Amino acid sequence: MSNAATGEGIGQPVRRKEDFRFITGNGHYTDDIARPRQTWAYFLRSPHAHAKIRKIDTRAAEAAPGVVAIFTGKHVADDGLGGLICGWTVSSKDGTPMKVGPHPILALDTVRYVGDHVAMVVAETLAEARSAAEMIDVDYETLPAAVALAACQSKEAPQVHPEAPRNTCFEWELGNKPETEAAFAKADKIVKLDLTNNRLIPNAMEPRAAIGEYDKGSGVYTLHTTSQNPHVARLVLSAFVGVAPEHKLRVIAPDVGGGFGSKIFIYAEETACVWAAAKVGRPIKWTADRSEAFLSDAHGRDHLSHAELALDKNGKFLALRVKTVANLGAYLSTFSASVPTYLYGTLLSGQYDIPAIYVEVDGVYTHTAPVDAYRGAGRPEATYLVERIVETAARETGIDPAEIRRRNFIRSFPHQTPVIMAYDAGDYEASLDAAMKAVDHKGFPARKAEAEKRGKLRGLGFSSYIEACGIAPSAAVGSLGAGVGLWESAEVRVNPTGNVEVLTGSHSHGQGHETTFAQLVASRLGIPMEQVEIVHGDTDKVQFGMGTYGSRSGAVGMSAIVKALDKIETKAKKIAAHLMEAAVEDIVFENGTFTVQGTDKSLPWAQLALSAYTAHGFPSAEIEPGLKEGAFYDPTNFTFPAGCHICEVEIDPDTGVTRIVNFVAVDDFGTIINPMIVEGQVHGGIAQGIGQALLEHGVYDPASGQLVTGSYMDYCMPRADDLPSFNLGFTKTVCPSNPLGMKGCGEAGAIASPPAIINAITDALGIRDIEMPATPARVWAAIQSRPRAAAAE
Amino acid sequence: MYQFNYARPKSLAEAEALLAKADDPKLLAGGQTLIPTLKQRLAMPSDLIDIGGLKELDFIRAEGNAVMIGAATKHATVAQSPDVKKHNPALAALAEGIGDPAVRHMGTIGGSIANNDPASDYPAACLALDAKIHTTKRLIEADEFFKGMFETALEDGEIVKEITFPHPEKAAYMKFPNPASRYAMVGVFVSKGPWGIRVAVTGAGQDGVFRVKEMEDALAKSWSPDAVASIKIPAKGLNADLHGTAEYRAHLITVMAKRAVAAAG
Ligand SMILES: Cc1cc2nc3c(=O)[nH]c(=O)nc-3n(C[C@H](O)[C@H](O)[C@H](O)COP(=O)(O)OP(=O)(O)OC[C@H]3O[C@@H](n4cnc5c(N)ncnc54)[C@H](O)[C@@H]3O)c2cc1C
To answer: Which residue, B245, A118, A224, A735, is CA-closest to A233?
Structure first.
């Protein structure tokens, strides 16, 4: 049976296998799980952005009804538990490693942001835990807070960590400074731009949750949690925090309702629940409410940048110079140091042949929640900077925005950029052309004129983006400071009846792995998808894995499965050769059947599987019984999804409201396994990009450090009616570095779309810049302060 | 939430009696404002007296030249009522624009005006349509009812029973929603009726809903969008927050007023 015929093969828009369970309420999320004798945790959080804790008095709270135990930073320290870590070490220009302040699981003597964890109350019910927490008497000495990013590196700014003078964690650089300076010196034109990349708060649909358990008999700890990478969580909890040795700790990430990066990290609450479970001898459950999520999930983005682009008289880019200040928040989160450095600076070449690039990034502590990877992680910030300054260059030189891009596109591959990355394949003009056609670029002047008659302002904005996915070659990331390798694992277990379990180290929290991975396996083995089970998210089942983020699960996770399937096929052919008394070289495996070339001898898959386990008459020296193979796949390069997004907006100058009237996205993701799922990923990504560009903004009060946007009353998540109907297209250059030719699609929408939108708005208004989010109020204010000539246009 | 006693009276009289008896009681209607407040532990009433299900407060009647709406009538019911749509389509449209479907199927008109959130929609309708607010104790004119941010003329133990909306000749409500909460950042209700001409603004004022005399006078002279188009509202006394400056809100009042007059025809 051919899978193409059943509509399940690679490239088919197969409906998602997992959705029936989710839509009918049969998913198993962490909060759905109840353990016998379970208790509830509530975390008392700091109401201050910065304060010394003089004293914590828990006596009254301990006597409150239902209280089982109360833990403070002192208990954690007395138990010898380590703090939370940053798994990536970045060094400064002068060679010194980044300056890391301790990140205790519960605050010891200082709180450093509103929401910092002060105490954990464990009680019979959540309400009792919460009531008891109100009775804890914390004597705070409030201190001034460092909040406004631009001011935090001054000598006068309040200090977040004594280890990091002027709140500067690192002063990192990348690229070639002398070459860049030389190129600027001979430039015909220099374009300068100051940019803000606004802080975002992730808001996965399912908030973080944990159930910690300890089995006294075996000494095994179990943590059910909302993780994108349960094995990494286990490794950190055992090797660094010291909760339990790795073989005595099981981490299970069951169904997880969205992550967008925020569930990569190892947080205090989850850690405290599993640690304290042994202390109280009962399971401890915690589920964040939305308010806690706003305060304590790692936030994203938050950069201030100055960029300069040098051009020759023909509009050819000569060099790019960038200075960025990146907000790290109060503590380094699990991967926070890598995001504004190696995931950002390395993408500053964009799709362009820029001979010299030099970027400096200061990582700065502030008295705000930690900042770490959020959908796109570093690459949206890079893309925003590159595509905004390229558009600005087009306007200042008078060269058409499409034309200036064409003049500078990289056209031969492989291409080594000045900032580490070696692009392997791409055709940037193909996606630009396709996007311009889809948006009807030629018709734009007429549409603009028609809108003007109605008193509306139209604008068109481009974003020719590139990103690096398939994260990542272990040797490469190791040399850049990563504490882990970024390979992936897979194990294919063929059961005696022929159905198959595939264990993967990837973790699905919305991406649809149960479908796409099964499509791959089913088409390779020639069996129906329903006979393939994808198993993930449990450290007791899957031996090890690196999890899902950075659009890596296709390019890296599926490549590992391919490698394991190769081994399965090799062994299965050996068995087939034995059973059909033929030479291995003569065995052909196609559509689920083994045949001996040039004969009518054949053996169906199911029969072979059974024979593998009956093993009757196997020459056991040559063929072991059973059919199970594992593989670790380490990519040889990043993958480089790229494409072109074009946004057309119409602005109502009376109110400042921006309507996206057309949004075109043409992406090159290499091979696509399931176009329906890929389109869904792009839709979601663009929705988040529109959120960043027009709606979302994490704001702290600069004086008090209170989170102003701590709920949906003020934090504006994109809703369906904020979004246009997306106009998607695809071009294809196959990725040469992995067996399936895949590039990754999970983040592209969020990476590519913000500059397209802002370029469109600035085009419509005839202004240089507008800060994200371009809310109606900001757009209106920008219109009011336009120079008169522009206003009269 | 903190602990509280919960009662579900069978009549308004019983509700009044319970209200008089309890220590620190609170009425519960649709719960769309009160329940989130309780969940965040921002209020600690001793007793919740749930009037949300009282049939005698859930009605819409068109009689004479007015529509009477019971206090426990849900936003969705008002939005879909043939009587309201016929005699006061602007009011039906306003109700249709409150929150989301879940909020509209739980929240009530009585709860909305008793709460008097400065960004809520109904207060603008009440003020612009010269509504009469009937309580268990008296009749309060809309002009006297809304006293400031989250403040009304209601006294302890007083329950809103009914709101009477005289039919307008012309009316329309234009809401500029706060992008995040979708409450009114600026909402302008314009009307022409037996009471003359009224322009009521919600969302913008620090003290809640207010009327704009200058616009009312201008519209009395000439009922046309142009009549209000050039009236500049002073920014003083208007809200300013991360969603918009006071100047922006002042500007939006004029724009929304203009659009409301155009929509009213
Ligand atoms: C997500 C969301 C979006 C919303 N969007 C909007 C919006 O766009 N526009 C808008 O206007 N509102 C909006 N609201 C508020 C909504 O309209 C509420 O329903 C309304 O404010 C309160 O009505 P309720 O029946 O739910 O009152 P409750 O929450 O039950 O009570 C509110 C207050 O009124 C008192 N009360 C209730 N009934 C009476 C009575 N008959 N007499 C005296 N006091 C009484 C209660 O004691 C309490 O103090 C929104 C709410 C939510 C949750």
So the answer is: A224
Nearest to A474 by CA among A483, A463, A465, A466: A483
Asked if B176 lies within 8 A of A131 by C-beta distance, the reply is no
C-beta of B71 in contact with ligand 1 (< 6 A): yes
Cβ <8 Å between A713 and B181: yes
What is the model's pLDDT at position A791? 44
Sequence-ordered list of residues with C-beta below 8 angstroms from that of B245, at least 6 positions apart, any chain: A777, A781, B235
Interval A149-175 mean pLDDT: 97
Suggest the residue from A294, A775, A784 to mutate for an interface test with chain B (most B CBs closer than 10 A).
A775
Estimate the crossing angle of helix A559-579 against helix A605-614, to 10 degrees: 80
* Cβ pair B251:A780 closer than 8 A: yes
| ipTM score for this prediction | 0.96
pTM above 0.90, yes or no: yes
CATH architecture, range B57-166:
2-Layer Sandwich (3.30)
Q: What is the pLDDT of residues A732-743, one digit of tens each?
A: 999 999 999 999
Cα gap A777→B87, rounded to integer Å: 35
pLDDT digits 0-9 by tens, B55-109: 999 999 999 999 999 999 999 999 999 999 999 999 999 999 999 999 999 999 9
Q: A777 to chain B: which residues are within 8 Å by CB?
A: 243-245, 248
In one-letter notation, the amino acid at residue A35 is R
Contact between A748 and A438 (Cβ < 8 Å):
no
- pLDDT confidence band for A6 (50 / 70 / 90): low
Contact A763, A461 (CB under 8 A): yes
Structure token pair of residue A294: 């706003």
Fold for the domain defined by B170-264: Enolase-like; domain 1 (3.30.390)
Torsion of CA B108, B113, B115, B119, to 10 degrees: 100
Domain B5-50 in CATH 3.90.1720.10: no
Angle at A147 between CA B42 and CA A50, to 5 degrees: 60
Element of type H or E holding A633: strand A628-633
- Residue A236: exposure state from Cβ atoms within 10 A (0-12, 13-18, ≥19): buried
